[in-house]
Write a structure and sequence with these properties.
Elements lengths: L1 E6 L2 E6 L5 E2 L6 H11 L17 E9 L5 E6 L10 E2 L1 E4 L6 H13 L6 E6 L3 E5 L2 E12 L12 E7 L13 H6 L5 H12 L5 H21 L1 H4 L17 H4 L15 H20 L4 H21 L7 H31 L7 E5 L3 H15 L31 H4 L18 H5 L5 H18 L18 E5 L6 H11 L3 E5 L4 H4 L5 E4 L3 E3 L2 E5 L2 H10 L4 E4 L10 H5 L15 H4 L4 H15 L17 E3 L7 E4 L2 E3 L1 H19 L8
Parallel strand pairs: 4-10, 12-13, 12-15, 13-14, 15-18, 18-20
Antiparallel strand pairs: 1-2, 2-3, 4-7, 5-6, 5-11, 8-10, 9-10, 16-17, 17-19, 20-21
Helix pairs in contact: 1-8, 4-5, 4-8, 5-9, 5-10, 8-9, 8-10, 9-10, 9-21, 10-11
């Protein structure tokens, strides 16, 4: 009796109750990719039918697209060692620690004479694994746009001819392995691409809201395909589907008889294409917002759970495209309430940290921080409801809850049940080796001092004290008051202040430069986070200045975020080793900075910048450049605590979640591990 063990890129037959390994013939590639997609990777299992002692070699494949949506393909000459006389994109192996993006640009220059200035990087795609008699490769796809359609192509000895073709025509050429599939990693149908574009362009929503948008995008894509399933059935092209390039969608349009890799018996081509299309879709959404970990984490969670659903369903049902879509919809329907519950728990935990009379300094627009402040204000100003069977004399009126009991006030059952495992009143989970706690040589006593100062503030305001505090001129004795930095250049903090004021809080709006002035007048600095990485929480630029100001003033700095936002870093760092992308820090258009300047001032700056970049300019002035970096990391040593849906996270717990997420990224998107993976 034998048992089939499926583990990502490894498939092996093991005899039950023995340690013998039965090596099978090499599985057919399409079915092998299905197995990879369903089960991810696992360490330690031998791989069957391939030369697995040979390290996997990274290869870059660069597609160049013109304005007419045609792609450059070159025929490899008979002088090259691998795949002679076959068509491909511009490709080449990567040696050592060379940047993949730099290598792609260098190969384009070598093989076509096109310079980097003539090209614009559009996107990079999910890496593909290629195993054949020529070797074992990791193919890293890049898509470039040719800025000058009239540019001259000059081939070197590696290629003997070239042509410009539409995407759907590539499959009809005699091409290198998986060339159409590699292009599919870069091109999405329009009903998917519109969601990627929206994520890239959005400036009005936080990471939590965009994570919810990811689920809606997956649902809409699946429903769109279900509505067009009758048109697509039988391999017929879907005329309503178009790629982002404006032409027919290459996956749907490709004739079945032209596919280089035929699926194994029992696995329909539509199943393979549909599953890989959703993998590409989620990968592109994950890479759309580098600094918002919740987006990438949600995309990974979708693919991980979809894989689990399909692994269970394909045992009983035929593997079809319809099965993938129905499984995806079920996954989304499960994840939506989970996401809402996580966000509610985070808001609840953060709100119960804030007693009546607290004054908080924050910046930018965080939906999670805003909701927590509003909930805390309601709890501070509304009389607590009497528990069943208790009289009013047991209520304690509007007394401020002590520090040890702050997490139990009106606590939700699912949050209260966490108890010692991580509720906000569990002082063991406050990182005693960081921030204010360390400086004051008292592990967790700052919590009691924080509540005591809030109580003093509320009492002095209620008693009519002539306090000169800048931030409390209009604060109430029991409510929460907030100082909000405007968060230039788009001033999301203005929206934040308006939202809080509309909910009844006393909000003071200040410029970013005033943060240091007001830091000593507040009780707490509270920041949202678009990600929590090994470098610290990542939030809107200016957050680090608030943390430094809070530390200098002896004020606790608390970061409020879902565990969904804990991340090993930008997914590009895993997909593209040794490569730094221009969008890695999400630096935006400088016009966002200069658009509010007086016209003459903005014009003079623009003119000066142009003179510096002009080699023919006779100006002797120094350089002038306007920058617009959007996000920054706040070092962990500046952070007193991280409040999540699971309660307080210690530094060690953050590191463990980061490690788990890294494994999830590799499994969800099939990211390679170089060497003998």
């Amino acid at each position: 009796m034998v048992r089939l063990q499926l583990a990502g890129t490894r498939m092996v037959m093991r005899a039950v109750h023995t340690s013998n390994t039965i090596r099978l013939p090499r599985p057919r590639p399409a079915f092998h990719r299905v197995i990879c997609s369903l089960f991810g990777t696992a360490e330690g299992a031998p791989v069957v039918g391939l030369q697995h002692n040979m390290p996997r070699r990274p290869v870059v494949t660069a597609f160049i697209r013109r304005d007419d949506h045609k792609f450059l393909v070159v025929r490899r000459s008979d002088k090259v060692r691998t795949y002679p006389l076959t068509y491909g994109a511009i490709s080449g192996g990567v040696e050592g620690n060379e940047s993949l993006l730099d290598r792609a640009r260098a190969k384009i220059l070598q093989e076509t004479s096109l310079t980097p200035k003539q090209l614009q990087l559009v996107c990079f795609g999910r890496p593909l694994l290629v195993d054949d008699k020529q070797g074992r490769f990791v193919v890293h796809p890049f898509l470039f746009h040719l800025m000058n359609p009239a540019a001259t192509i000059t081939l070197n000895w590696e290629n003997d001819k070239y042509k410009w073709v539409i995407a759907s025509a590539i499959a009809q050429l005699q091409h290198v392995p998986l060339l159409p599939e590699t292009l599919d990693c870069l091109l999405l149908p329009s009903y998917m691409q519109q969601h990627v574009d929206y994520l890239k362009a959005d400036r009005n929503h936080g990471a939590a809201q965009l994570a919810a948008y990811v689920l809606q995008a997956c649902k809409r894509a699946a429903m769109h395909e279900q509505q067009n399933a009758s048109v697509i059935a039988g391999g017929a092209p879907d005329s309503s589907v178009a790629s982002s390039s404006g032409g027919p969608h290459p996956v749907v349009q490709r004739p079945a008889q032209q596919q280089q890799v035929a699926p194994a018996a029992g696995v329909q081509p539509e199943f393979v294409k549909c599953l890989e299309a959703y993998s590409n879709f989620c990968f592109q959404m994950a890479a759309a917002r580098p600094s918002m970990a919740a987006v990438a984490n949600m995309c990974a969670d979708v693919m991980l759970q979809l894989r689990q659903e399909l692994a269970a369903r394909t045992r009983a049902f035929e593997p079809t495209a319809g099965l993938v879509r129905s499984a995806l919809l079920d996954v989304v329907n499960k994840l939506e309430p989970q996401l809402q519950k996580q966000q509610a728990a985070t808001i609840h935990n953060a709100a119960h940290l804030l007693p009546a009379g607290a004054c908080v300094l924050t910046t930018s627009l965080s939906s999670t921080v805003a909701a927590a402040l509003i909930e805390a204000h309601k709890q501070a100003t509304e009389p607590p409801a009497a528990p069943a069977g208790r009289t009013d004399e047991h209520q304690g009126g509007n007394q401020v809850a002590p520090a040890a009991a702050v997490a139990t006030r009106s606590q939700k059952p699912e949050v209260a049940a966490q108890g010692a495992a991580g509720s906000v009143d569990d002082t063991r989970l406050w990182p005693s080796s960081s921030g204010v706690g360390k400086d004051q040589s008292c592990d967790n006593s700052w919590i009691a001092r924080f509540h005591e100062k809030c109580k003093e503030r509320a009492s002095s305001t209620a008693g009519g004290s002539n306090s000169n505090r800048r931030s409390s001129s209009s604060s109430s004795s029991s409510g929460i008051s907030v100082v909000v930095c405007e968060a230039r250049p788009l001033c999301e903090g203005v929206i934040m202040a308006q939202r809080l004021a509309a909910a009844g809080l006393n909000a003071t709006l200040i410029t970013d430069a005033q943060a240091g002035v007001f830091a000593s007048d507040v009780n707490l600095v509270m920041l949202g986070a678009d990600a929590v990485t090994p470098h610290g929480p990542v939030n809107k630029v200016g957050s680090k200045l608030l943390a430094l100001a809070g530390k200098a003033a002896g004020v606790p700095v608390v970061v409020v975020t879902d565990q969904l936002k804990v991340s090993p870093g930008h997914i590009a760092a895993m997909a593209l080793p040794n490569t730094m992308l221009e969008e890695g820090h999400e630096e935006k258009d400088v016009n966002e900075v200069t658009q509010v300047w007086p016209f003459e001032l903005a014009s003079n700056v623009a003119r000066a910048a142009d003179d510096v970049g002009d080699p023919h300019s006779s100006s002797t002035r120094g350089s002038l450049r306007v920058r617009n970096v959007y996000f920054e990391a706040v070092p962990l040593h500046l952070v007193t605590a991280v409040v999540t849906d699971g309660g307080m996270l210690s530094e060690q717990q953050v590191k463990q979640v980061i490690q788990d997420r890294a494994v999830g990224y590799h499994t969800a998107f099939g990211l390679p591990v170089y060497g003998n993976d």
